[in-house]
Amino acid sequence: MANESLGIVETKYFTFAEAPGELQLESGEKLGPITIAYETYGKLNKDKSNAVLITHAFSGDAHAAGYHEGDDKPGWWDGMIGPGKGFDTDKYYVICSNVIGGCNGTTGPSSINPETGKPYGLDFPLISINDMVNVQKKLIEHLKIEKLLTVSGGSMGGMQALSWLTKHPEKIKSAIIIASAIKHSPQQIAFDEVGRVSIISDPAWNNGEYYGKEAPARGLALARMVGHITYMSDKSMMEKFGRRIRNVKERHKFNTGFEIENYLHYRGSNFVNRFDANSYLYITKAIDCYDASEGKNLSEILHGIKAKVMILAFKSDWLYPKYQAKEIIKACKVAGIDTTSCEIESTYGHDAFLLEIKEETQLIKHFLEKVVQAGE
Amino acid sequence: MLRYIREIEFQTICDYIKEGSSVLDLGCGDCELLHRLIKDKNIKAQGIEINEKEIYKCVQKGVSVLHEDIEYGLSEYKDKSFDYIVLQQSLSEVVKQPDKVIQESLRVGRKVIISFSNFAHYSSRVQIFLKGRTPITPSLPYSWYDTPNLHFLSLSDFIRYCRERKIKIEKKTYLGTKRKAYLFPNFCALVGIFMISQD
Questions:
Q1: What is the bridge-based pairing of β-strands A93-97 and A51-55?
Q2: Structural contact between residues A243 and A258, judged by C-beta atoms closer than 8 angstroms
Q3: Is A342's CB within 8 Å of B68's CB?
Q4: How many beta-carbon pairs under 8 angstroms link A with B?
Q5: Which of B35, B48, B58, B60 to mutate to test the interface with A (most CBs of A within 10 A)?
Q6: Which of these is catalytic: A168, A184, A228, A350?
Q7: What is the pLDDT along chain A (376 residues), one digit of tens a residue?
Q8: Which residues of B sit within 8 Å Cβ distance of A?
Q9: Domain covering A12-183+289-374, topology
C-alpha cells in the first residue's frame, strides 16, 4: 500500500501507579494514580520487535495520525505515519502517548486530584522530561514490549528521545532526534518565560484555580502568539503573509489587519480551546529545566551505548539552531555511537519538522530498515 | 575512462583495508565505496559528506553518514577512533587546508588512505609545455572554470610532503590509463593511491 490514511483511530487509556504504588517523580514527589492517553497504529509482530514510539512536541498529543470520528483534520504527524509512509504501519507498530502534565487525556494539572475531588491546579507536582519518559516506559511495559525499534520525536519530542537514549538505552534499538537540543539556551528559556508571565499576569489565572470558572484565555492566547513567531522563519512569514492586508471586523487605530496579525490572533484564540494554561506552565518548565548532559559531558553518558542514532535539523530553524544539533552529534561521535545526521534545507523554521515530510520520510524509512536489519 | 579509473581506484582501496575494521570516509559522496566495503569486508562504516543530496543516497544504502564539513567533522573525534580514514579524491577536491586535514586524519585514524589525480602526468606536461593550456586529462577531465579541484599536486609533491612531515608511506599504487603504472610513475600515472601512517 502506498501513502494511504489510517482512517478512523481511537484514543485508548491506561491507568497505573495507584496507591500505594505511586510513581516517584524526579522532583522527589510521588504521583498516582496516573492515566495515560495513547494511540496505536499497525500491528505488533509475534516477537514484539517492530514497536516504534513517537514522542510529541510541546502542544502535541496522543493523536499523531489518522482521523477521530467526525473530525476533518488528521493527527499532528499524519504525513509521517500510515501505510507506506515514513513510519510504515504495514511494517511497524506505532505508539504515541500524551505526556504527563499534559491536558489531552494523560494526568495533568487539570485532572481531578483524588485527595480533594477537585482539579489539581498548582497542587500538581513539577514534572520533568525524564518523568514523561518514565510514564511512557510504564505504557510500553503494559503493552508487553521489551525493546523499542525506535523512539522518534521533534522539539520536546526529541528531548524525550534523548532521555530514552541516556536513561534507558537497553530498551531501545535506535533514536531519531529531530529539531531538538541537549538543553535549552537562555534565548529559548526567555521565550518560554514570556509565555509563562503572560499567563500568570492574566487575572483570570488566579493562582491556577480557574477550573469551572473563566479561564485565563487572554494570557494563554498571547503566550501562543509569541510561540508561533518562534516556530516560523522570516522567510516563511514573508512567503505566507507578506505585508498583505485583510478586512478586519473590529477596526481601531492600531488594527491595520496585516495577515500575519490575523494569523497570530487566530492561532492564539484557537489554542485556548484545546490547551490548558497550567499545562502550559508545567510543560514549558519541564523543557527549560531539561539537561540531557546533567552538567557533565553528554559523551560520557552516551559512552558504550549500542543504539543507533539519527539526528535531523532544519536550515531555517532559529529556535533550535544548527549548533544545538551539532552538540548532540559531537557527543555521539566522541562516544563512538553509530550516527547519521542531516541538516535539511527548509524555509519553514522550527515548524519544518511537521512539514518537511518528503525529506524526513526518505531518511527515516531507510534508517529504520537498517535498524531492523542490524538485528540485536 | 574516468569511470574505469575510479573502478580500479575503488578496488585498490578495498584491497588495502582489512576485514572487519572501522573506516571513516571523508567526503564520501553517495557512499558507494563504504557500501562496497560493508559488503566485501564487513567493515564498520562512517561517512562525512557536506552535500545534502548525497546524504539521502547514503542513508538509502544503509550507510551511517554525517552531514558535515570535513575539516570541522574530523576535529571532534578522539585519537585513533578509526582503523582507516579514507580521502578518496577529497584532498584535491574538497579540502581547503590539506596539511591540516592530513595531520588530523593521522591523529583520528591508525592509517590514512589518500588517492588523488597526478597533475604531473605526461599529457598534462605536454599541454602546459606545448599548448600553454591548463591541462585536461582522463583523471582531471575538467576545464579551469568548472573544476571541483582546489589543489593540483603530483605524486612527487606528495611523496616529498610525507618525507618532510616524517609520515610513513606503507603502501602505494599508481594507476595508468590501462594498467598499473610502474615505470616513471610521476610521468606515467594518472592517479596515485597511498596508505600512510605516523607513529
A1: parallel
A2: yes
A3: no
A4: 50
A5: B60
A6: A350
A7: 456 789 999 999 999 999 999 999 999 999 999 999 999 999 999 999 999 999 999 999 999 999 999 999 999 999 999 999 999 999 999 999 999 999 999 999 999 999 999 999 999 999 999 999 999 999 999 999 999 999 999 999 999 999 999 999 999 999 999 999 999 999 999 999 999 999 999 999 999 999 999 999 999 999 999 999 999 999 999 999 999 998 777 767 787 789 999 999 999 999 999 999 999 999 999 999 999 999 999 999 999 999 999 999 999 999 999 999 999 999 999 999 999 999 999 999 999 999 999 999 999 999 999 999 987 5
A8: 44, 46, 52, 55-56, 58-60, 62, 64-68, 76-78, 81
A9: Rossmann fold (3.40.50)
| Distance separating alpha carbons of residues A194 and B134, to the nearest angstrom | 61
Residue B30 belongs to what domain range? 2-118+151-197
Rounded-to-integer distance, Cα A83 and Cα A56, Å: 20
> Whole-structure pTM over 0.90, yes or no?
yes
Q: Count up the domains in chain B and report the number.
A: 1
Helix, strand, coil shares, percent, chain B, to 5? 40, 25, 35
Domain annotation covers residue B73: yes
Nearest to B66 among A308, A341, A369 (CB): A341
Is A373 in contact with B62 (Cβ distance < 8 A)?
yes
Angle between helices A186-200 and A277-289 (to 10 degrees): 160
CATH fold, domain A188-285, is Rna Polymerase Sigma Factor; Chain: A (1.10.1740)
Q: Where are the domains of chain A?
A: 12-183+289-374, 188-285
- Restricting to A residues 167-206, those with a Cβ less than 8 Å away from any Cβ of B are none
Spell out which residues of chain A touch residue B58, defining contact as CB-CB under 8 Å: 340
Residue B47: CATH number of its domain: 3.40.50.150
Domain-located, residue B177 = yes
* Predicted-complex ipTM score: 0.94
Distance CA B22, CA A23 (A): 43
The model's pLDDT over A94-138, given as tens digits with 9 standing for 90+, comes to 999 999 999 999 999 999 999 999 999 999 999 999 999 999 999
Across the interface, of A329, A336, A373, the residue whose CB is closest to B66 is: A329
Spell out which residues of chain B touch residue A359, defining contact as CB-CB under 8 Å.
56
